From TrEMBL:
InterPro entries: Aminotransferase_I/II_large, DapC_beta/gammaproteobac, LL-DAP_aminotransferase, PyrdxlP-dep_Trfase, PyrdxlP-dep_Trfase_major, PyrdxlP-dep_Trfase_small
This protein's encoding gene: dapC
Domain spans labelled Aminotransferase class I/classII large: 32-383
NCBIfam families: DapC_gpp
Species the sequence originates in: Janthinobacterium fluminis
Protein name: Succinyldiaminopimelate transaminase
Keywords: Aminotransferase, Transferase
GO molecular function, one term: succinyldiaminopimelate transaminase activity
Length: 405
């Protein structure tokens, strides 16, 4: 067996299953889950219709590179969304079966397993980053998010001796679970570090289209374009961006996303994926073209999230320490003032009110003397508004019962 598998922790939802194993939830309440970040808004009908209209694609083996139509649609969306110069669809864009699979696979592509490399990850983090590092033969190095920095990571705290071993840096903006976004200054700093120490940046941007202010989150390619790093001889050097239709278009079951950026990295990534077997079904490709070419459903989806957050966040703020995030569909709440740990809070809320939330410590690791997820919970506001409001009311009631006891 691959010895690196023994380094993997149980996935957060497996930990949650064990936490709840001995608990029988209160039957007076119907089950509401805020635990998993699975979009619950209806899939736009035109995407389903596009799938049905292209069932003939099921009779063909797909190419790993994907169709010219899909790569062109993705390149067009990137240009419209971020105001960047057109990418070359043939060399700078690659369709993938969801950003999760591609994030994992990139590490296997860029890491030399004999080099004792490090992979830098934010902490807390999307668990794929850690698994990808270990199974590529590298070690993760965690940089803790800091509430005082709007949950940004202090990359200046990373010693030079660490940077010298880094092969890959995972960045998640908007962040999971914090919702924090990177500024142009943040990106400029990361690009300078990448150039100095010659590591690849993997920018995970799957939450980019769900935001709560007037300004859309800054993307990595957009930042590089603004800083003049897209017009040099090697454009977007060492930068690969990941995005997905799952959250943007409410189609997590389609497993459709893309990577874009450095053509040299993507050339090697395509070679890896050719052997890995990562080709997307032609039927899904056709539906993906329709989705990337339409923004109306994205605006409507964003409006639904904004309405939910506007209604639910003030209710939660009455009992827990939490702020409206920059973007994404999570609330990242501090439960310290309840007197319960994050695991105790989640377990008792489930037992007494049949509401599931995810303990923050399950999403982070002990690093530099602290687990930055401890005493926090992640609430995914993915359900329809009525169900989300009901969950919020139960959480308020639960917290009031704690105060009264």
């Amino acid at each position: 067996m691959n010895p690196h598998l023994d380094k993997l922790q149980s996935y957060p939802f497996e930990k949650l299953r064990h936490l709840f194993a001995s608990v029988t939830p209160n039957p007076a309440f119907s089950a509401i889950s805020l635990g998993m970040g699975e979009p619950k808004h209806p899939t736009p009908p035109f995407i389903g219709q596009a799938l049905c209209d292209n069932l003939a694609g099921l009779a063909s083996y797909p190419t790993t590179q994907g169709s010219a139509a899909l790569r062109g649609a993705i390149a067009g969306w990137l240009q419209r969304r971020y105001g960047i110069a057109p990418l070359d669809p043939a060399t700078q864009v690659l369709p993938v079966n969801g950003s999760r699979e591609a994030l994992f696979a990139l590490a296997q592509t860029v890491i030399d397993p004999a080099a004792q490399s490090l992979v830098i990850s934010p902490n807390p983090f999307y668990q794929i980053y850690e698994g990808a590092a270990y199974l590529a033969g590298a070690e993760p190095y965690f940089v803790n998010s800091d509430p005082a920095r709007n949950f940004g990571c202090d990359y200046d705290s990373v010693p030079a001796a660490v940077w010298e071993r880094v092969a890959l840096l995972f960045v998640c903006s908007p962040g999971n679970p914090t919702g924090a976004t990177l500024s142009l200054t943040d990106w400029e700093h990361l690009f300078a570090l990448s150039e100095r120490y010659n590591f690849v940046i993997a920018a995970d941007e799957c939450y980019s289209e769900i935001y709560h202010g007037a300004q859309a989150p800054l993307g990595a390619l957009q930042a590089a374009h603004m800083l003049g790093l897209a017009s040099v001889e090697h454009p977007y050097a060492r930068l690969v961006v990941f995005s997905s239709l799952s959250k943007r278009s409410n189609v997590p079951g389609m497993r459709s996303g893309f990577v874009a950026g450095d053509a040299a990295v993507l050339k090697k990534f395509l070679l890896y994926r050719t052997y890995h077997g990562g080709a997307m079904s032609p039927t899904v490709q056709a539906a993906s073209v329709a989705a990337w070419n339409d923004e109306t459903h994205v605006e409507e989806n964003r409006a639904q999230y904004r309405a939910k957050f506007a209604a639910i966040t003030p209710l939660i703020q009455g009992v827990l320490q939490v702020e409206l995030p920059d973007a994404g569909f999570y609330l990242w709440a501090d439960v310290s003032r309840t007197g319960l740990s994050d695991t105790e809070f989640a377990q008792r809320l489930y037992a007494e009110y049949n509401v599931t939330v995810l303990p923050g410590s399950f999403l982070a690791r002990d690093a530099h003397g602290v687990n930055p997820g401890r005493n926090r919970i992640r609430m995914a506001l993915v359900a329809e508004a009525a169900e989300g409001l009901e969950a919020a009311r139960r959480i308020v009631q639960f917290c009031h019962s704690l105060s009264a006891s």
